[in-house]
């Protein structure tokens, strides 16, 4: 129990330090948010710069003022009370917490679905590779996967968007759902709306799966080969246990354990990495909001999105450590550390 | 006497670091293919800009399809032209220089910082270890890509050196952790204990006993750091957060994706596909080449050769 408390304190300090660092880096960004907003108005509504600047000045009450350290103290105290400030650019004056609450579920939908699918597929493929290690199939899959892993997801995303959406018209070219689907939802047709949502999320999910499956398969292959050499597997075989049982209960379970930590960590990292995919598919999730906030110099929104990602990463690591302790009997019974 | 000594040293060096690696590469088909691909890219980045003319706009018909696939093939505009009549092959060649420079600098810096932090933490242990690992944990927590975008807009430079350094800021932490655990597992092995018992100085233990055992691990990670830096730098240019003052494949991707609307029609797609193939080819070359690394650097395999 003392171990968990210590681990939680370290996690909190990590969050605090990472938040502080990102606060000052973001504050060092050049560029005036009012100017950035005015230029956005000029582009969007074709108005003169003076007019746009006057309109942008209406946002002035929301632009933070005073010395940076005072802003820092104010921001941090408010943050831990749940007040993330207001957005300057995104429908000016809207609460950052509201914007993020609207964006997060969509990123979670895409990231969690693709993480689970690619993890499961990777585990099955990795185990098959391990059982056939040394074979032609194994060695060619290793090469194919290590190359696939090095191909950037933005390239996969662009290719999928070009072929499946623009040329073949199988999937929408962007957005989270169609407006007609929202009308259907209002009429009570939930299934049709969900179908539309999945149809829009399909390409982002497919991109993640294509780029992540190789990592899981290679990791599972290595882990399984390690387990296959262990004595308890030989013993189980000698005892004449059915091979299905050995594959699933003895090999599978023990080989997955070491992958578990990276599974939990991935969730947080994929949040940050969703910028490219959400940018390409104009999918309004956290990555999209973060990209927009950076180009608009929308400090509070940027900080809010950053800190949410930081907290997600640290929480994921913390949960992984704790669950790992429960799952691995050696740690569970070892007790002291 | 001294000269023959030096000659022996040079000969041993050539045998160890040129002839031996080459024989490994030649005997490994994957590594050989990777090596040839990498040589092609390095030639493109170094000699290319002296041979291929500077890409200028309005010098050929907009969206001219690649002439190399035409019959008879022509080399005038081998990959065709973009939306304002700039030769695409010239843009690929001139862009390769910055892509490779950034990747190389980021790879070197990431690896060196990772080695230094991991070695010091693992070797000294105690408070130093605790502090260094706390820093490493924080760096690993900060979302890398978003931070890079913010940094890119703070610094606003397209100097390959600065972009390379920037990409290393978040990249070293994972390697440092891995090196540290490797050092911890090597620290109490017999051969290190023996060197300590013989009263060997610390630098000898670090560079002569521990380092050689880490070399293949370090070299593989250098390649991975390079692959990661190509991903990062091209991605930042693609998002348009770095200034478009130099040539880079990411800028071409951005232009094709956002400005030129290459996705809509088939006769503009070569502008988008050219940088995509350039990036994928380079990554494939690096990964295939990495298959020779273990054999080249592994001290036990070396001894056998």
UniProtKB/TrEMBL annotation, chain A:
Residues 104-319 form the ABC transmembrane type-1 domain. PANTHER family: OLIGOPEPTIDE TRANSPORT SYSTEM PERMEASE PROTEIN. It is found in: Cell membrane; Membrane. GO terms for biological process: transmembrane transport. Belongs to the binding-protein-dependent transport system permease family. GO terms for cellular component: plasma membrane. Pfam families: BPD_transp_1. Coiled coil: none annotated. This is ABC transporter permease. The chain crosses the membrane at residues 7-26, 103-130, 151-170, 190-211, 255-281, 301-324. It is a multi-pass membrane protein. Keywords: Membrane, Transmembrane, Transmembrane helix, Transport. Its main location: membrane.
Automatic annotation (TrEMBL), chain B:
Residues 96-288 form the ABC transmembrane type-1 domain. GO terms for cellular component: plasma membrane. Keywords: Membrane, Transmembrane, Transmembrane helix, Transport. It comes from the Archaea. It comes from Ignisphaera aggregans. It is a multi-pass membrane protein. The chain crosses the membrane at residues 20-44, 102-124, 131-155, 161-179, 210-231, 269-293. This is ABC transporter permease. GO terms for biological process: transmembrane transport. It holds the Pfam family BPD_transp_1. It is found in: Cell membrane; Membrane. Belongs to the binding-protein-dependent transport system permease family. Coiled coil: none annotated.
């Amino acid at each position: 129990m003392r171990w968990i408390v210590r681990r939680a304190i370290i996690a909190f300090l990590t969050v605090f330090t990472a938040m502080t660092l990102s606060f000052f880096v973001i504050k060092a960004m050049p560029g005036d948010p009012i100017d950035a907003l005015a230029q956005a108005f000029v582009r969007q509504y074709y108005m003169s710069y003076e007019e746009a600047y006057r309109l942008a000045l209406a946002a002035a009450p929301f632009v933070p003022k005073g010395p940076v350290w005072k802003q820092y103290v104010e921001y941090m105290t408010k943050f831990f009370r749940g007040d993330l400030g207001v957005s300057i650019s995104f429908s000016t004056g809207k609460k950052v917490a509201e914007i993020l609450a609207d964006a997060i579920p969509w990123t979670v939908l895409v990231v969690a679905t693709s993480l689970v699918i690619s993890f499961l597929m990777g585990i099955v493929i990795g185990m098959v590779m391990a059982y056939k290690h040394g074979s032609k199939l194994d060695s060619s899959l290793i090469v194919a996967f290590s190359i696939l892993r090095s191909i950037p997801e933005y390239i996969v995303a662009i290719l999928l968007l070009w072929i499946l959406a623009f040329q073949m018209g199988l999937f929408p070219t962007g957005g989270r759902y169609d407006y007609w689907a929202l009308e259907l939802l209002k009429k009570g047709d939930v299934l049709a709306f969900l179908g539309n949502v999945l149809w829009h999320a399909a390409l982002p999910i497919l991109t993640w799966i294509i780029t992540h499956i190789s990592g899981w398969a290679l990791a599972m292959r290595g882990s399984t080969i390690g387990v296959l050499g262990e004595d308890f597997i030989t013993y189980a075989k000698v005892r004449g246990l059915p091979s299905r049982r050995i594959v699933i209960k003895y090999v599978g379970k023990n080989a997955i354990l070491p992958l578990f930590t990276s599974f939990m960590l991935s969730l947080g990292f994929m949040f940050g990495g969703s910028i490219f995919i959400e940018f390409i598919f104009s999918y309004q999730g956290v990555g999209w909001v973060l990209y927009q906030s950076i180009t608009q110099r929308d400090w509070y929104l940027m900080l809010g999105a950053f800190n949410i990602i930081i907290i997600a990463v640290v929480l994921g690591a913390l949960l992984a450590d704790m669950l790992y302790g429960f799952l691995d009997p050696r740690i569970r019974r070892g007790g002291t550390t | 006497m001294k000269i023959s000594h030096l000659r022996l040293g040079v000969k041993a060096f050539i045998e160890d670091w040129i002839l031996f690696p080459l024989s490994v590469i030649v005997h490994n088909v994957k590594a050989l293919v990777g090596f040839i691909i990498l040589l092609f890219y390095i030639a493109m980045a170094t000699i290319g800009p002296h041979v291929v003319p500077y890409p200028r706009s309005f010098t050929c018909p907009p969206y001219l399809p690649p002439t190399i696939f035409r019959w008879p093939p022509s080399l005038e505009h081998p990959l065709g032209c973009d939306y304002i009549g700039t030769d695409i092959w010239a843009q690929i060649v001139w862009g390769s220089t910055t892509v490779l420079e950034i990747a190389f600098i980021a790879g070197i810096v990431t690896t060196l910082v990772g080695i230094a932090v991991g070695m010091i933490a693992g070797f000294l242990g105690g408070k130093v270890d605790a502090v260094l690992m706390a820093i490493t944990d924080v760096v690993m927590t900060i979302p890398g890509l978003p931070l890079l975008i913010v940094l890119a807009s703070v610094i606003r430079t397209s100097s390959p050196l600065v972009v390379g350094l920037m990409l290393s800021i978040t990249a070293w932490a994972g390697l440092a952790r891995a090196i540290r655990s490797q050092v911890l597992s090597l620290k109490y092995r017999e051969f290190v204990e023996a060197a300590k018992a013989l009263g060997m100085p610390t630098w000898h233990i670090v560079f002569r006993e521990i380092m050689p055992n880490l070399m293949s691990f370090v070299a593989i990670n250098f390649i991975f750091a390079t692959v990661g830096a190509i991903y990062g730098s091209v991605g930042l240019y693609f998002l348009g957060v770095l200034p478009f003052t130099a040539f880079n494949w990411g800028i071409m991707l951005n232009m094709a994706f956002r400005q030129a609307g290459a996705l809509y029609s088939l006769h503009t797609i070569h502008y988008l596909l050219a940088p995509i193939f350039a990036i994928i080819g380079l990554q494939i070359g690096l990964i295939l080449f990495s298959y020779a690394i273990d054999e080249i650097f592994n001290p036990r395999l070396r001894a056998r050769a």
